[in-house]
UniProtKB/TrEMBL annotation:
This is Tol-Pal system protein TolQ. Belongs to the ExbB/TolQ family. PANTHER family: PROTEIN TOLQ (PTHR30625), TOL-PAL SYSTEM PROTEIN TOLQ (PTHR30625:SF3). It is a multi-pass membrane protein. The Tol-Pal system is composed of five core proteins: the inner membrane proteins TolA, TolQ and TolR, the periplasmic protein TolB and the outer membrane protein Pal. They form a network linking the inner and outer membranes and the peptidoglycan layer. One of its GO terms (cellular component) is plasma membrane. It comes from the Bacteria. Residues 106-213 form the MotA/TolQ/ExbB proton channel domain. GO terms for biological process: bacteriocin transport; cell division; protein import. Keywords: Cell cycle, Cell division, Cell inner membrane, Cell membrane, Membrane, Transmembrane, Transmembrane helix. It is found in: Cell inner membrane; Cell membrane. The keyword Transmembrane helix applies. The chain crosses the membrane at residues 20-44, 133-160, 172-198.
Length: 237
């Protein structure tokens, strides 16, 4: 419908406004809607993933502090899919076993290698835990501006149409501006949940990573103590 034609308010629904928008504004709105759908997919995926990781951490720590031999725990972990915290434990145990096999088990060097193995594994697991969160941050910060870009383009085209029709009646101006403002509304619709979810999920991921880091520090202390106890004839943890 041309901008110069009167529009019944009852017909000015969201879909109608979208259909009357220009191609550029439509592209902006569709892009924002797709980004919003993807952001919600990430949000739900992270919620369920973080719940699973917290359960895995609790289960592993219960086994670790139960008094079970670390060798037995290592064997048990090898027979099950690796999770974030057990991956750190297995990296340390693998380095310990490798050093025993090669005879490179001096206290200082072995402790350093085990700590390095845990740090590298922790870094990889942290990247997995925090993956895709940057998309939420990007959408939260850029979404309103992308919507505003669509609005500016829409308003410019609306005014050009008004100029061509030489009719400045509010009934003529309003529909075109409403179409343009819809882009900003969609930008905010996409950005607001993304910002809230990003802040919440970032806090949650930081807590999970801190738990794994604390375990790595505690295990490093245990390894150091065992190395001191077995300095003359190290056998197993």
């Amino acid at each position: 419908m041309p901008h110069g034609e009167l529009m019944n308010p009852q017909t000015m629904g969201m879909l109608h406004l979208f259909m009357q928008a220009s191609l550029v504004v439509k592209v902006v709105m569709v892009g924002l809607l797709l980004a919003s759908v993807w952001s919600w997919a990430i949000i739900f995926d992270k919620i369920f993933t973080y719940r699973r990781i917290r359960r895995e951490i609790k289960k592993f720590e219960r086994s670790f502090w139960s008094g079970k031999a670390l060798e037995d725990l290592y064997v048990a972990c090898k027979s099950h899919p690796t999770n974030s915290i057990s991956a750190v434990f297995m990296a340390a145990m693998a380095e310990w076993k490798k050093s025993l096999e090669k005879g490179t088990h001096t206290s200082i060097s072995l402790q350093s290698r085990i700590d390095k193995a845990m740090d590298l594994t922790l870094g990889r697991e942290s990247e997995k835990i925090e993956s895709k969160l940057s998309f939420l941050a990007t959408l939260g910060s850029a979404g309103p501006f992308i919507g505003l870009f669509g609005t500016v383009i829409g308003i410019m085209q609306s005014f050009l149409s008004i100029s061509a029709s030489q009719n400045t009646s509010l009934a003529i101006v309003a529909p075109g501006i409403a179409e343009a403002l819809l882009a900003t509304a969609i930008g905010l619709f996409a950005a607001i949940p993304a910002v809230i979810a990003y802040n919440k999920l970032t806090h949650e991921s930081a807590r999970i990573i801190a738990q794994i880091e604390n375990f790595a520090d505690e295990f490093s202390t245990i390894v150091s103590r065992r190395l001191d106890e077995t300095r003359t004839a190290p056998s197993s943890l």
